[in-house]
Write the structure tokens for this entry.
Amino acid sequence: MKRRDFMKTASIAAGAAMMPTIADGKTGATKAKAPNIIYVFADQLRADVLGYAGDKKAITPNFDKFAAESMNMTNAVSVMPVCAAYRSSLFTGKYPSSTGMIINEINMNPNHRTIAHVLSDAGYDLGYVGKWHLNDQHRRPTPKGPERLGFDGFWAAYGFGHNSYGASYYTDDADGKLKRVSLKGKHGPEEFTNIAMNYMETASKKDKPFAMFLSWNPPHDPWGPRNVPKENYEKFKDVEFGLPENFKAKPDQYMDRYPGFALNKVKWNEKFLKTGLQSCLRAYYAMVNNLDEHFGRLMAHLEKLGIADDTIIVFSSDHGEMFGSQGRMFKLTFYDEAARIPMLVRYPGKIKPGKSDACINTPDIMPTLLGLANLGGNIPKEVEGADLSGVIRGKSGVEPPAAFMQGLGHTYRWIDGFEWRAVRDKQFTYAKYLRDGKELLFDRKKDPLSKTDVVADPAYKTDLARLRKIMNAKMTELKDEFKPCSWYRDNWMYKKYSIKAGAKGEFGPLPPIEPNRK
């Protein structure tokens, strides 16, 4: 069976019918017209390090302007705060337990009907630019076909890499063959933004809408002056960053890895306090400032092309970064510093600027985008997220009671002991670790930085029971059995590094990707 035959469904015709129509001024006839979609996402960008979010050290005038024009989803979270799991959920509308994306650096299974398939079948031109991170080797290209998950149009992407001055990408030549393009010596985020702008210009001239995903690698580590333009770093080189209010000198026992400047518990406190944090944050904020400049260029180009009013634009991130809060670095945790992400949605004339505290989660993004594009009827039946397009449009409707998050293992290794599940609603964060059954409960309304665990406080007995019930119900719905990381390796993987199954069974009819990793 061919991939295209497998992925297409009878909803193709329905999708075309649901596209809004406009009159042709010359003939009086009608033709299909739908909004363009641009989804821009950074890597490891926290929700609170932007000017519009109240950070006075941030220099983000373009993001701030965009926020004032957008619906700001203030409770947006990453379903599993690591790169690959987020991406697998973003494209499929499913939870990581259903995509099988347990750790980074494994091959995504191709047997999913993704947002790219739906948009392509509805007549969209597709473009993907930047980081992909859904295969088993950092430098292995993603060939045209099933591995691209429906992104069969313009392609300028790479698997993994965060050296912004040593970037490269793969694209298709005139004969459809893959070719590698080196960007060594150039600044990767600037070049990928240029590529995205060129794609927008080309696609805007076609008699069809386009959908483009632009994935920037900053502000992911490594954090240092050599990984960001000098002019951006100069703005922050003398800025003093204090320790976060919820910093813990003792590292969290559930943290799955230590930063390079503090490779063990002994060095954690001394190195972190003296040099590590300041150096990291100066580079991090400089990277965010640099992305802000590129976002401004992207928006100016959209205006120049005259298509801004016909385009849904989303700005977001795959996850955040802890930076010492709760005694942790990096991501893969339910704490807000890692789990909360920026999510701004603009569609002039269709979405009124403002704020929404709806509990939107990564699996909700795919169906919500399709709903905003009037393709809600084409959402695949296997999608597990909710269509919150009505909420974003300012209409009343049913909202998820909470966001369910999963920590399925280590960030990128088959190591047990770091598994967790969590539920985050508008007031509380409830979490449970598999290792020892430890539970935590934080009242973020009274304790925004989650300093005090109230799981044993009798005053929260009812809230705790309610959140436990929500978590258990969601795990039952998803068939999430909460297993050790190595169990998934032994039961869901083909040759350790390619996904063959998820919580709801084995994938097919296409076989798993043959791994290239030893």
